[in-house]
Amino acid sequence: MTDIPLTTDQLSVTYTGDREIEAVKxxxxxxxxNTLTTIIGPSGCGKSTLLKSxxxxxxxxxxxxxxxxxLLSGESVYDTDVPAPxxxxxxxxxxxxxxxxxxxIYENVAYGLRIHGDYDSKxxxxxxxxxxxxxxxxxxxxxxxxxxPGAELSTGQIQRLCVARSLAVEPDVLLCDExxxxxxxxxxxxxxxTLRELKSEYTIVLVxxxxxxxxxxxxxxxxxxxxxVIESNDVRSFFEDPQAERTRTFIGxxxxxxxxxxxxxxxxxxxxxxxxxxxxxxxx
Amino acid sequence: MTTDTDDLRDRARSSRLGRRLLAERYSSYWxxxxxxTAIALFAGITLLLFYRSLxxxxxxxxxxxxxxxxxxxxxxxxxxxxAIVGTVYVTVLSMVMxxxxxxxxxxxxxxxxxxxxxxxxAALIDVLAAVPSVIFxxxxxxxxVPFVGNYVAPVFGENTVGVGIxxxxxxxxxxxxPFMTSLTVESLxxxxxxxxxxxxxxxxxxxETIRSVLLRAAGPGIFSAIxxxxxxxxxATIVPALLIGxxxxxxxxxxxxxxxxxxxIVNDFGELMxxxxxxxxxxxxxxxxxxxxxxxxxxxxxxQRRLKxxxxxx
Lengths: 284, 314
Prior knowledge:
Chain A is of the alpha/beta class. Chain A contains 11 helices and 11 strands. The longest helix of chain A has 14 residues, at 122-135. Chain B has one domain: MetI-like fold. Chain B starts with a helix and ends with a helix. Classes of the chains: A alpha/beta, B mainly alpha.
């Protein structure tokens, strides 16, 4: 792995539905190895769209046009012979809504391992499931009910289960889309704690609209506004010495963050839920 | 001045509240009554059928009614086995032919088709689902009957004009397939995109996602769709009446003509209505249909409850 496992090169994402909307506009960013990079910005600024374009999740949508490229360890993600499923194994994705697959807790973690055949025996699979559940601090909470449906866990536990499932297939990069925004403060804290422990081992890209969360977790910060990168820097410089005027306004203005750092939806713009509404918001 | 208008507004509000509470009370009476009507209807119909079945049930033991192959009302022979066997044949064959096609079509529409193609296919299937089954019966008389008689049956070494169990099953499969497809598409499309993204996000292919995640998550809905299809075949009257050949015999092969429980009622009611014992026998057929459908729905409810827990997501 190079020091910069993931890079975007003039990446643009355009929705070509009834009206053409460029949600991400020629973005070039480096995501350094074993580092947690947060992409922050107001709701509807194209964060989720950008994140999904990093591992080709837009392939499943109609009317999306991608220009530019994403480079994984120097190799193109779009212009390549490597099949999309293999790309997505190497670039894992955890969605905003905690999503348990309709199988048991055990099978939720084993899901990717079974698909890729990444185990030698049942004992090996058992061991890997346990390893990754421990990695997200979930093992002690679920060890006695691995056969229960995943959806019977609390939302915070499900979100950690999602992280465990993604890590189990040993991705090079982990993409997390506002993974704490659907959680109560206590659960959000446990997920943050998990991410903090993981970031020295993994290259993580975290989308958030909570600046407090970015401050707490990030090594690097990218500020996205209306599909363009306004500023990117290491976390200390970004918050203590912002260069762009708009960054200063965004940081200093009425922040969409609770005092204790709980992520909340900003009141200035309506909340978004995925790609579709992102477009609408971008239009304003 | 101000107190006067405040006073007026208070009075208006309180009389309005009185009217609202009255509407609340009466609407709840009305809705409760509607609910009880449904229960009363079901109980009433079942009891009536049972009461009118008593003559035949007191004359012959149930076991001989259900296992005798001889149906000849004029000679007081009431064996339901041919119609029972015919019904089982038709139901099983239709489901075997219809369910895989319905599932495939639904998966194609919900997960693969795009743009105009998707709109077109989905709309066509919805229209097909709404066509009265008598139309399918008529078209089948012109097209399917000679096709089965001339081409399909000879392949299996059977000699038939084309009416019979197989033709009915094929046409009923065609009747229920759009219906089951439409309901299955709805279950698949109501699943959140996060499920797809989650599965694809760990490197699953589209087909793996459909097989391991989406079909399970939509499982309870698909199960309902199949069950409703089953109910329609089981109770189908007009298509079998037109195409089954109306011979009350144990079918010797799937291409034989035969009888189902509903066609037994339809074919014999007019002429044999005047014979009290025959009338009672046919009403007993109705009772069997009601009881079997009820048992199936009850069983399905239990299965569905398990599926919903086992295959829940989020």
